[in-house]
Amino acid sequence: MGQARIAPNAIGEELLRLLPRDGGSIPNRAALAMLSKRLGNPIASETYFQARDSLLNKGLVGRVRGQGGSIYLIADTPSTAPEPDELTDGGIPERELMAPLHTALRTSFRATLDLPRDAPDPIIEDISTRGPKKGVWARPDFVFVSVSKFAVLPGAHVDVHVFELKNEEGAGVRAVHEALAQARFANFAHLVWYLPEGSHREPELEELVTHCALHGVGFCRMKTLGALEVLQDAKRTATTPLEVDGFLESRLSRENRTALRHAINQSNER
Fold this sequence. Notes:
Elements: H1 8-18, E1 26-27, H2 28-39, H3 45-57, E2 61-64, E3 70-73, H4 98-112, E4 123-126, E5 142-149, E6 156-166, H5 173-182, E7 188-194, H6 205-215, E8 218-222, E9 229-232, H7 241-251, H8 254-269
């Protein structure tokens, strides 16, 4: 008996019903098998991926690449509720530090990278509410993507940095490991600690910087709102271009994905 011809849009609708509402991901192979069972007919792999790609293009689902790949539901409205480790007993809440961090990344952090003068503006985006909700520390707070042309070699050089932000009361050794876990998505991972001058937690600063250095995590202190002091440079990770590409595809907004492609194309043409 041959495979039934089920319309891709019908498969897509059923796939949306199948995916976990909490953002958990399902391997493509498993999704294909479950859809075939639910629809009562075997589905061709090509038809499944046609339906899945349509949902990707509409921004309804995201994918995780590697080892067969997986797919997850993207919520219609990003959650603004704080993660459990964002809740603190005092000080400025982390959500109120996001805008100052964006400013600091665009100004003081960018200045530390020594990018060429003709390099396109970096892509900087708050991605704290995007991507799978499941998984240990699966959501960095910010992504910073720089694009520059090689001096001699052809093509564009792209570096992806991710940042985990902690307020005055939120940082600690656990935060270092959180940033380290997020290094699997990017070329460089950083921990940002909002630590005002004279804070009662200032004696802990040296220990955290040392801990970051041991794990290759960058450490930035936000002493004043909107400015960063880099106390420890991040080490380049072993993340593959395919993994980075899948991460950017699922985390960046449509506008920033387009802007990034344009920046890369411009650098390739120079």
